[in-house]
Amino acid sequence: xxxxxxxxxxxxRRVPELDDRERxxxxxxxxxxxxxxxxxxxxxxxxxxRLLLCRRAIEPSRGLWTIPAGYLENGETxxxxxxxxxxxxxxxxxxxxxxxxxxxxxxxxxxxxxxxARLTRPEVSAxxxxxxxxxxxxxxxxxxxxxxxxxxxxxxxxxELRGRQGPFVPVGNPPRDEGN
Length: 180
Ligand SMILES: [Zn+2]
Known about the structure:
By secondary structure, the protein is α+β, with helices and mostly antiparallel strands. Strand 4 and strand 5 form a beta hairpin. It folds into 2 domains: 35 residues, Ubiquitin Ligase Nedd4, Chain: W; 123 residues, Nucleoside Triphosphate Pyrophosphohydrolase (Alpha-Beta Complex). Bound molecules: zinc ion. Zinc ion binds next to loops.
């Protein structure tokens, strides 16, 4: 960040008062522009004994296989984001069964929230970010051709949980707290 998105002033890197690390600070409008990890949401989507994989049409890892996943948008719950990604990447309509993994990827400042889900109808097809989609058996997963380590981790995790009923972690909105 070189210029302040709020006032156009020139950004300085410095430690704000009472803080313990360097931030992007705009001295002109006295705003600290924090940078925090991005949230990725995604799902291992199953149909009976098969699971859904998408071959990526975009970089990074173009041509390799992944699960439907992507950045959470503002104004969206994680569950809505996971369902949206399934639709965008695989034209898949899904019902979330539970959160099965939370991964902190410090190297790239991401937190990934990954669900197990089932397809609510069998039709799937490639969305704009996928070259193709497929439903494969658990013994047909193309392990060497997976796009990211987290895809490998969560598929192992989902395989461990096969046959178990969710939810594994409560999903949805927190109970409303009086006074908040
Ligand atoms: Zn400013």
